């Protein structure tokens, strides 16, 4: 496993990280979660990413129990705040009272006195950005988080925060990024790099599409996300004819490069120096090891060119509004 510096921080994170979005929020049993976490440590993964809203605390609770048995300095822990945490529609967002409440709740579930990275899960256009920034800075000042980051903010939102608090405010950005979703390269990557902010990208395997498990003209595997009623609408946006055809064209490219499709897809993401880590999910230990095997794999310029040709018109390259980004930046 290779490690990369996270933005302007002193954190050295594994370039393959383990995420808890769907799997450890209740998608799999606790013992499977433990087995995958143990496999991550075996593979050299030291970076674990979760959020308060995953299972409304279930993912944090699971990792709190599992990770509490390991030395706190043996892993780097990241969580997020923003999503709705109860049936109360007001129990969400990035107001000062909400951030103060949610960081304490997250720390209790995670059984730790601090997280290494605390991230704004989305932007909150209903709260003055000054209030959000001051509340996040207080979390750091109180020793409850070491560093701050954000996820799926637009360039305008990022710049507004930097104009108020300077380039040392954030060390990480967490956008969706993969061979099939390249939009962050246009604006988010360069703006972040200019301000010492690394990317820790989610869905680098396009929700499993880039593993090759989905084939044109075939029903999704029974145990896949696309076969799940709760995820079918989300997956339908990915499982297009163009994307499936592109993955089929990538199969011989991976074989020629001596890699699995997973390794090829993760190596493609990690070829960018702006990326500190690629966050992957796993429901079985062998998946963790297969993902971790991509660390250190390098793609020549010729292979990248062949990949680009194989992708054709499939990738989303144009910048798009992040979810819930509408409404602009609110000031006091």
Question: Quick recap of the structure?
Answer:
This protein has 332 residues and is an alpha/beta fold. It has helices at 23-27, 30-42, 58-67, 96-110, 129-141, 155-165, 188-194, 232-236, 241-257, 261-270, 285-292, 301-311; strands at residues 3-5, 12-14, 16-19, 47-49, 76-81, 115-120, 145-151, 172-174, 198-201, 275-280.
Which key phrases capture this entry?
12 helices; 332 residues; single chain; 8-stranded parallel beta barrel; alpha/beta; two-stranded antiparallel sheet; globular
Structure explained in plain terms:
The chain contains 12 helices and 10 strands. The longest helix is centred in the C-terminal third of the chain and has 17 residues, at 241-257. The termini are far apart. The chain has helices at residues 23-27, 30-42, 58-67, 96-110, 129-141, 155-165, 188-194, 232-236, 241-257, 261-270, 285-292, 301-311; strands at residues 3-5, 12-14, 16-19, 47-49, 76-81, 115-120, 145-151, 172-174, 198-201, 275-280. It is of the alpha/beta class. The radius of gyration is 19 Å and the shape is globular. Helix content is 38%, strand content 14%.
Strand content is: 5-15%
Spans of at least 5 consecutive residues with low confidence: none
CA radius of gyration is: 19 Å
Oligomeric state of the chains present here: single chain
State the major sheet: 8 strands, parallel, barrel
Q: How many H/I helices?
A: 12
Q: How far apart lie the N and C ends? A: 45 Å
Number of strands: 10
What is the N-to-C order of secondary-structure elements (H for helix, E for strand)?
Answer: EEEHHEHEHEHEHEHEHHHEHH
* Principal-axis shape: globular
* Overall mean confidence score, pLDDT: 93
Sheet/helix structural class: alpha/beta
Q: Fraction of residues in helices?
A: 25-40%
Adjacency order of strands in the biggest sheet: 3-4-5-6-7-8-9-10
